[in-house]
Structures are given as C-alpha cells and as structure tokens.
C-alpha cells in the first residue's frame, strides 16, 4: 500500500480520540493543556512554506503516543500546511514498517512517516527523541509523559525535515 493511500484511509485526530478510552482521552487532554512550544520552534513551524503530510501509526493506550500526538496536532494548528493522518499499530506494522525498513522486532508506536506534498518520503520519527539516549530517558521520563518535553519532540522532527 502506498503512503498516499495509507494517509487518505487513515483517521483524523478526532476519530482517534473517539475510539480511545475515557481515561486515555483525559490523559491526552491533560498533556495538551501543558504543551508549550518555544518561540524559535513556533517560528520554524510557521515558516514551512510547502505542504507536509504526517502519517502516524499510533494507539491511544501507548504513553509515548499520548506524549507525541498532542505535539503533532499543535504543529498542524500552527501551520495548516501540515496535515495529520493516523493509522493503527496493526496497519502500521503491516504496511508502514516495511516501507520504512524497520525490522519486525524494532517496530513501535508512535512511528511517524514525514511525507511531502506528493506523499514522497522525507523522514521518519520513531518512538521518542534520540537525544534521550545521551542524557538517559529515566532523567526526563516523568516530564516527557506529562507533556513538558514537547520541544524535544519538535526539535527532532524539524531536524529530520531539514529545518
């Protein structure tokens, strides 16, 4: 299945929320309330002058997804050139994993394929920011899962987009 078809048959954020449990929706809402994006990254997001399609494989039960998805939604609110399509972990594993050349045992949610306006591959973002390997995830995990490390997620996504 091609990226475009996966994106177009994916869910909206609203649909994603509608199939989440009440407690998962509450957690996502709490994270959404505290997200703060620094001015530098806000300006970089605003300056994106061509369309991007974010194809996200996600499940609401995953705490990493709950920390990431509000950040991606915020990016779409800052710049309407960014569109978000969400597919389940199962569809991601079946179709997206192979396209992104991720071994079966390494596939996790969230997995994000960053695509250009023609649905051509630009970059991928998987799991959590790579910089945590250097500083130790245990040192930031509480803040990350509460929504206070959104700039770290945006920093890596923008970097992968060449911004």
From TrEMBL:
It comes from the Bacteria. It holds the Pfam family Thioredoxin_9. Gene3D superfamilies: Glutaredoxin (3.40.30.10). InterPro entries: Thioredoxin-like_sf. This is Thioredoxin. It comes from Fusobacterium necrogenes.
